[in-house]
Structure formats: structure tokens, C-alpha cells
Write a structure and sequence with these properties.
By secondary structure, the chain is of the alpha+beta class. The protein has helices at 10-14, 18-27, 42-48, 58-65, 80-88, 101-105, 120-130, and strands at 2-8, 31-38, 70-77, 114-116. It has a domain at 2-40 and 70-134: 2-Layer Sandwich (Alpha-Beta Plaits), CATH 3.30.70. Helix content is 37%, strand content 17%. Strands 2-3-1-4 form a four-stranded antiparallel beta sheet. The structure holds 2'-deoxyadenosine-5'-diphosphate and magnesium ion. 2'-deoxyadenosine-5'-diphosphate (DAT) binds at residues 52, 57, 61, 91, 109-110, 112, 115, 118.
Length: 150
């Protein structure tokens, strides 16, 4: 079982797409383990996107991610990291397959609606930036016997 960090980015919150995006995650069979609205500070943005600090788009990325609240979600499930990534679609919405979040709602790379951790290791680091241990809740869902083969 894996956990991954999903961010419903400021553009998606402003456009009223939170419910649509959360519904897609839930329908895939993934479980919500924590969720909150966050106004990201420049400091948190720098920590979260530290790997991109030398990229030409870094400044714009920080400005965007701090421009308005986002929804942070701890998502849990079998292969949660990869399943969230395929549900998101390619980074650039121009290349994202229709049926993915970015392929259905995105148009430009700078406003691509959703973040998902790219590995179990980065998921652990990123989850710790957005959630305290006590905020991620371990609970059972009766439906899981019909989603996950035992
Ligand atoms: P992803 O969000 O698919 O994991 P990433 O980690 O490579 O993609 O980049 C983080 C974010 O930075 C991405 O969601 C949007 C922005 N970004 C990436 N490449 C960009 C580019 N060439 N121009 C502008 N923004 C870019
Ligand atoms: Mg990434």
C-alpha cells in the first residue's frame, strides 16, 4: 500500500474543479487519507519545488502555486503514486491524453491543475511538508474488498 501527495492547484480551485478531480481519484478506487485547503507560502513553495530551483520557469511556478489556495490531499492505495500520475496525464496538457485531468481540463503547462508525487520517496518527503503525522488518518473501507484483490 502506498501514499502519495496530490495538490489540486490554484487554477483548479479557482475554476471550481476540486470536486471533479477528487471524484476521479475516488472512482479509481484510491482512498483519501487527509485533505485540507492550504495557502502556500513562498517558503513552502521553495521546499516543495526545490528540485526545480535552477529551471527557468521556477520563479513563475512559485508565483503560481502561492497565488491562491490549493487543496492538499494524502491519497492512499495500491500503486497510488503511479495510478495518480496516469490519472493526471502528461505535465504539458498539450501532450496529455484525453481522459486524464490535464488532458480534459488543461491547455498550458504553467496551469496544469494537479500535482502528484513522482516516486514513493518524493511522496514521503512531500507528504511531510503538507501534513503532520496525526493528520493522515488510517481507516478501513468496507468497499476495498471489491477494489483490491486479496
Ligand atoms: P509534474 O508536475 O508533471 O511532475 P515537473 O515535476 O517536471 O512536472 O514540473 C513541476 C511543475 O513545473 C509542472 O507541473 C509545471 C511546471 N513546469 C514544468 N516544466 C515547465 C516548463 N517547461 N515551463 C513552465 N512550467 C513548467
Ligand atoms: Mg513533478
Amino acid at each position: 500500500m502506498q501514499r502519495t501527495l496530490v495538490l489540486i492547484k490554484p487554477d483548479a480551485v479557482q475554476r471550481g474543479l476540486c470536486g471533479e478531480i477528487i471524484a476521479r481519484i475516488e472512482r479509481r478506487g484510491l482512498k483519501l487519507a487527509a485533505m485540507k485547503l492550504v495557502q502556500v507560502t513562498p517558503e513552502l513553495a521553495h521546499r516543495h519545488y526545490g528540485a526545480h530551483v535552477d529551471k527557468p520557469f521556477f520563479e513563475g511556478l512559485v508565483r503560481f502555486i502561492t497565488s491562491s489556495p490549493l487543496v492538499a490531499i494524502a491519497v492512499e492505495g495500491e500503486n497510488a503514486v503511479d495510478v495518480v500520475r496516469t490519472t493526471m496525464g502528461a505535465t504539458n496538457p498539450v501532450e496529455a491524453t484525453p481522459g486524464t485531468v490535464r488532458g480534459d481540463f488543461g491547455l498550458t503547462i504553467g496551469m496544469n491543475l494537479i500535482h502528484g508525487s513522482d516516486s514513493p520517496e518524493s511522496a514521503a518527503t512531500e507528504l511531510a511538508l503538507f501534513f503532520d503525522d496525526g493528520e493522515i488518518i488510517d481507516y478501513e473501507r468496507d468497499i476495498d474488498g471489491w477494489i483490491i484483490e486479496s
